[in-house]
Design goal:
binds pyridoxal-5'-phosphate, transferase, Rossmann fold, pyridoxal phosphate, 34 helices, 3 domains, 48% helix, alpha/beta, Alpha-1,4 glucan phosphorylase, ten-stranded mixed beta sheet, six-stranded parallel beta sheet, 839 residues, glycogen metabolism, Glycg_phsphrylas
Amino acid sequence: MSAPAPLPSSSIDDERTSFSREGLKRAFLDHLYYTIAKFPKIAGKNDFYLALAHAVRDRSLQRWLSSSAQYNQAAPRTVAYLSAEFLMGPHLCNQLINLGLADTAREVLAEMKLDYGEILRQEEEPGLGNGGLGRLAACFLDSLATQQIPAFGYGIRYEYGIFFQTIIDGWQVENTDKWLRYGNPWEIPRPEWSVEVKLGGRTEPYNDDAGRLHVRWVPEKTVSGVPCDYPIPGYHVNTTNTLRLWRAEATEAFDFSVFNRGDYLGAVNKKVTSENLTKVLYPNDETTQGKELRLEQQYFFVSCSLQDMLRIHLARGSAIAEFDRKFAVQLNDTHPAIAIAELMRLLVDEHLLPWERAWGITTRTFSYTNHTLLPEALERWPLALFERILPRHLELIYEINARFLNDVRIHFLGDESRIARLSLIDETGERYVRMAHLACVGSHAINGVAELHSELLKSDLLRDFYELWPQKFSNVTNGVTPRRWLALSNPRLTALVTRAIGDAWITDLPRLRHLEEHLDDPAFREDWRAVKRANKADLAALLLRRTGVKVNPDSMFDVLVKRIHEYKRQHLAVLHIVTLYLRLKSGRARDHQPRTFIFGGKAAPGYHTAKLMIKFITSVGEVVNNDPDIRDLLKVVFIPNFNVTQGQCIYPAAELSEQISLAGKEASGTGNMKFAMNGALTIGTMDGANIELREQVGAENFFLFGHTAEEVRQIKQAGYRPMDYYQSHSELHACLDLIQSGFFSRGDPELFRPLLDDLLQRDPYLLLADYQSYIECQEQVTQAYQDTEAWTRMSILNTARSGKFSSDRSIREYAERIWKVRPTPVTLLNGNELEQTLK
Ligand SMILES: *Cc1c(COP(=O)(O)O)cnc(C)c1O
């Protein structure tokens, strides 16, 4: 017998993945033919997009494989960022920027008479998140990779992401988001690393051979989790981390016992049911519903992810007891908080560690980021539902709780009300499991996402925990990645800034400060205005395409885009518009400044008030836009389906950023940061990161209005009476009366009655109390805008002083203070070197 032929060493063909123009062009045409099965004459735009995406992906692979190989070899301490949402935005443009291939790709397409922007617009963005929280996770992945920190993002691969919004007759209509319909070149499924997840059933005690007592979970069903991987390249570094999203599959394609009984359709049905688990993203932002499938989704992705980390950990040759030395697991809000009980289950039930050891590992592993102060957003699960799905975890939670509450008793002997408040189980009425409490008890670090928010956590929402463990609490103010939100979204500003101060700001954002040296240069200010004007013209063209409304690019662009929510107070901005409209109609408008009000954002489908707020915006827009007296003086547009792709066009074109939430309600906000970076001035309240933004850019470059969080507290305590404001403020009175008359609802006084009644009777978000201050502040904005040179200076200063709000800074703070991880640079390996890492 002849010896088997030696395996050829894996070859990485440098020619095939060359970064040169010729190389990229060759690869693009090859993929069009061999991957997409088209040739240029018959190919459509999406075919060209897919061919380019494959060519670019090939160029990411060597870095990705090099990163994985070196991580596996050196087993560095690794971050696992657990998040039920990742709102990534389109991948291709980000890959091109981070790989340094954008100009090359533009040239290659131009040579073939293809439009770069148009080809990139073919990508359906993966809308696997609701808003700020999911987008934060995406910015963090970019910063982790750029700072060369070994990291995984772990989440859910929803088949349908956040719904696609259209506006029909002024109302939001939801359509499914079939983002996968034309294929997804960025995803690499890894079925060989699938894991099994149990659900339902019961538990039973048993004794092992040595007579020790253990518990076995006998599930009602099992589901298979298939990892779907996405490469996350850092900016101009070799580090390429992994976003691993889990897809649910039936454990067996067919249930053979049912099949053998002849029930073929019954067997297939079971498969369909399992796969429903990752079918759709819940479209609620800042609210929870306590739905069974949602708890199953959360447990599913958390269990998959922890099993995956343990597999990797053991494969790297580390001992189970050192898990917390190798992995730092961040909980992005409470959605993944069940991970605390799941790691305990894996360590105690499956790896047979004693409780105390397992608990030490668990608490050293996890840290928890809180994202909200709204009570309706705090997750809690009815006990019966929880027990039905996760019977073993409920037992573990009871045990965690018993030990925890005993600890509390030592510190606060006899304080039974405190114990009831701290308990992991809410027993004030129907019984619930409190996920935020589980997260606090099972984590070594707890943080809020802006200074005010972190203070309010300590003084209000998590006060009892703060009194118990003050050392666990800290603040990490959010940030956004300057790669996507400047370099990629705003190429004109990027070019201007880079010409002035070089390009080091892209990875060191505080360097934007050097722009201040150009403040007194009239030519620079002229260029600055030209950039904004061109971005506004682009947005005007988009608005015309999407809404049919023609706006004047020389008017002030006043923008409010974010999820629609009462606490965010989009309806306060509408009251301002109605006020201006009344002033214009009655000839009382002094030096009126033409303004275009641009709104965008989705309402949760079951949130009726938010949907009515959209109708309110569009209805006022319809009247104002079609009033011949008003012409170009006021325009109101609602751009449908606000998402990352649209944001990339909107933030760079904004001149005024509306950040008008009631003080004490917005945890941080990140839209505020994107606007300021792109040179918009902010009109805002003392809420979330607005406070830090104002501190950075200077009070004189920020339009502040409204009551502070402390004043809000006092007003509410004294018994807030919105009707008093209505009766004492004639302009407010006139606005509300005009709306109530049916003027904006084709004569129907009932349409907006729910909104108005709520404002006059309860007004929980204090619109009426903040109205006057807001209107007066808007008058200051108008005056300031009319001094073009002064406005330009303020705009430049906003960009120049936004350096703090890079997510690179946020990630550095997490890495140093909470995760204790350090950068691990990656070297590029060829085929032979990759294989060497396995020796
Ligand atoms: C940044 C961003 C958000 C968050 O906006 P806020 O103004 O902070 O609420 C929501 N959605 C998208 C698409 C974003 O890009």
